[in-house]
């Protein structure tokens, strides 16, 4: 109980101001507050600090650059290209993409009214395979570059090339049959 007595003695000697403030106290306070000078930007050795805004601008440019270059993963887009896995996969993707472009160009060159239905059907099948590839890109981003997904993506490329080659063979067959002259046959 000695501590209670010590506290009592400590506070007994102090004079606390318990009077209520005057009625115009708030108005005088606001008036004094309005007369205070506005606070200026923090200065160090007389120089305004520009590091904060400069660093914010630099960080914005860095993030924009990384997003453009694909170096920073977009958290809303889990889609990942095969080329992002490794340099070898980039070469593989580039090779297959160039073969597909070449086959599509050859197919367009062979387009005639007789082959239009076959080519249209092939393009529809190709779109289905491309949409499957888009799903695989999402799976690759979600799976963390799982080898099974990578193999499925390569297999998808191969299926597209096989489809285009098969259609080219059919188109060549149709065009050959159209050009064959059957007038030499004697009945």
From TrEMBL:
Keywords of this entry: Membrane, Transmembrane, Transmembrane helix
Name by which UniProt lists this protein: DUF4179 domain-containing protein
Bilayer-spanning residue ranges: 48-68
